[in-house]
Amino acid sequence: MKIANTITLLGFTILFIFGCETKPDEVTKTSDYNKYLNVKDNKSMTFANNEIDFWQKKFDAAPNQISYLSFIAANYATLFEYTGNIKYLYKTESLLTQSNAAYNYSKTSTIRSLARNYITQHRFKEALELANKALAIGEGKKETQKLLFDVQMELGNYPEAIKNLNAFQNMKDYDYLIRLAKWNDHKGDLKTAIGLMEKARDIAENEGNKVLKIWSYSNLGDYYGHAGRIQESYDSYLKTLAIDPNYSYALKGIAWIVFSHERNTAEAKRIVETIELTHNTPDFYLLKSQIAQFEGNKAKETENRNAYFAMLEANNYGAMYNKYNVLIYADAKETASKALEIAKTEVDHRPTPDSYDLLAWSYLNMGENKKALEIAQKHVVGKSFEPKVQYHLAMIYKSNNLKQKTKPIKEELLSSIYELGPNFDQKLNQL
């Protein structure tokens, strides 16, 4: 259900002000979350597997009942959410494609389901085609407008996104509030975004809707972290786990607090390695690589990065990890050209300020300072407020001898060290 790029599943970031001389307050307690690291069974997965068996048998007995395919697909999507196994995502796609073909792409709910699957795969242009097809049919227009907002945000078509958002405006509607929160976060107004997400949470609680409560608490965990409200972030992740003990996204959030706020690398690794046993995705290797880098363990840092690339090679993740690949490749002169190649593809797939940032950053690491500055000024400045994007911008200004522009960004970034991670301490000092 994550709106924000499932690489909401692939990258969790939160924020805090950290003074180098003081030991950070410990907000986590192993006794709070240990029970969630040793859950023996996953009721949601058991239910999904049973549902797949049930509906598959019914479909095999009556292949003309196309609606059964959507039920099977929805349960494979659940398996993907809990395991991270990409095969389940592709199985969902296959079933939804089969279902849409049988309906001759006339049923809007099934079209929207396939579009959401494409969003998870980062196939945004194809998702937009499907959303427009559903809009043309007209049935369930409000749901299609929600989908259009989501996909237009991913593509950086912000005027179209806000037009669709305004089309179903309702401050008492959960789906509207969470999207308005996302819009305000995009604009850099985190305070308003948090207020809106809290209103959405209240609706979820009043309705007693388990799915919406999980979504609200986990996203508030992120937002509170971005605002430096670490205790509230931690409490929100715990609330998520109290409802769904198998929700690995919340455990990843706690692992990041332990690593980035408390600087407890041994405990952060323990949490991550436990999650990996049931939910194994490439980004865990990148987190372990970051932890090893902070520990000064070059061998482990490289080992985990290599394991990340090995997992990408063993599975077809499409464009889902392009952003991470650019950032890794851009760091070394011998692979900077590869970073540039992927960044160009990303700009083509989704011309957002963040994609242009990757392009500018790649050019900078290729030694093309002026080109990097030109792209950043045209497509990034004032359009993205992500700390990593701001760091890249500061480095681009510095390389072009625009130190007066670097200084205010550096001051702002010093309050974002929690989101950036402990490895940025030294990088920011060198700005």
Characterise this structure:
This protein has 431 residues and is mainly α. It has a domain of 108 residues: Alpha Horseshoe (Serine Threonine Protein Phosphatase 5, Tetratricopeptide repeat). It is built from 25 helices and no strands. Helix 8 packs antiparallel against helix 9, helix 18 packs parallel to helix 20 and helix 22 packs antiparallel against helix 23. The N terminus is likely disordered.
Strands, helices and their partners?
Blueprint lengths: L6 H4 L19 H8 L5 H19 L5 H17 L2 H17 L5 H13 L3 H14 L3 H15 L2 H10 L6 H13 L3 H18 L2 H17 L3 H14 L4 H14 L3 H12 L6 H13 L2 H17 L7 H9 L5 H14 L3 H13 L3 H11 L7 H13 L3 H11 L3 H4 L3 H6 L2
Helix pairs in contact: 3-4, 4-5, 5-6, 6-7, 6-8, 7-8, 8-9, 8-10, 10-11, 11-12, 12-13, 13-14, 14-15, 15-16, 16-17, 18-19, 18-20, 19-20, 20-21, 20-22, 21-22, 22-23
Task: Give the strand tally.
Answer: 0
Our count of helices gives 25
Structural class: mainly alpha
Order of helices and strands: HHHHHHHHHHHHHHHHHHHHHHHHH
Mind telling me the CATH superfamily name of the domain at 38-145? Tetratricopeptide repeat domain
Mean pLDDT: 94
N- and C-termini, Cα separation: 39 Å
Sequence stretches where pLDDT stays below 50 over 5 or more residues: 1-22
The main β sheet shows up as: none
- What fraction, in percent, of the residue positions are helical? over 70%
Radius of gyration: 22 Å
**Broad CATH class of the domain at 38-145:** Mainly Alpha
